Amino acid sequence: MDWPLKHVLSFSLVAIVLLLLANAAFGQNDNDVARDPVALVRRASQNELKASNGNHPYRYVLHKIDDNKITTKEIIETKDGDVARLIAVNDKPLASDAQQTEINRLNNLAAHPELQAHRHKREQEDSNRANEMIRLLPDAFLYKFEGMVDGPNGPCYRLSFHPNPNFDPPDREAQVYAGMAGELWIDKAQERMVRLDAHLIADVEFGWGILGRLYKGGSILVEQADVGEHHWETTHMKLSLTGKALLIKSISFQTTEDALRFEPVPPEMGYQNAIKMLLNSTATNAQLREGIVQSAK
Fold first, then answer.
1. What is the CA radius of gyration of the chain?
2. Coil, strand or helix at 25
3. Distance between CA atoms of residues 28 and 217, nearest Å
4. Rounded to the nearest 5°, which phi and psi values hold at 132?
5. Residues facing residue 83 across a β-bridge
């Protein structure tokens, strides 16, 4: 199934920032970070590229507000890619016909592995592109240590960043960095990326399969946390972006996502077993919907 233009663009932008994780702890004092903050970012970038090959699948709930529509999905990560079931719209349980539509969709997906294989291939392609963006982070910006702040799992280094004038973007994907500035928080104990708050300080061109331009004034906010056993996941994301696709069609992203209720699942689980879990989760869906809005706020 071809993705709508807006979804492709949205995913590409989020992918640049949603995969900023690290996988090791280092002992470093504040003076070291102040003298050479880019070294901290470089290690985090390198560790994320290593961690991207890790296998730590989770089951969680995603609450999303997009174009004034609110959806709640239960998602299970598997070795074959993610599988999701819609459980609420506009914070209300699905009607019986909508429930049946979801059941039919999942049954059809289970019966046609080629559909999931195609989706998983696209996930991997986007992940590979995002990894390349992560590799460029230390060189794309100039960083400054601004002090310590409290993060969700303890003290964090707070870095400000702005474009590096000597950075030469190797492709259209990386051109977006030329117009971004903001703050990056890194957890002190685990050296993981906790918060990225970026703003567009100039109009920027971008690629990622589709050419376009994003206008000055847009913002991207991503927050991450340790969800258990030193495994970090994105817990909050907010996009506020406007621009043009193919320099013709106006685009606007006003999206907020909150992920919560993380539970680990077996690393060897395939997508068909995940579908069975989702189809058999009717009893728990009421519990998931109960309080989901309050939890996501």
1. 20
2. coil
3. 35
4. -65, -35
5. 76
Q: Residue 277: what residue type? A: M
- Tokens standing for residue 266: 């077996």
Residues contacting residue 7 through CB under 8 Å, at least 6 positions apart: none
pTM, two decimals, is 0.82
* H helix intervals, the chain: 5-18, 30-35, 37-51, 96-111, 113-140, 271-279, 282-289, 292-296
Q: Which residue has the tokens 């982070």?
A: 137
Q: Could you tell me which residues come within 8 angstroms of residue 120 by beta carbon, excluding any fewer than 6 positions away?
A: 80, 81, 271
Distances from the Cα of 44 to the Cαs of 58, 121, 257, 261, in angstroms?
22, 26, 24, 26
Please write the tens of the pLDDT for every residue from 206-246: 766 567 889 999 999 999 898 888 888 889 999 999 999 87
The tokens describing 179, both together, are 């117009």
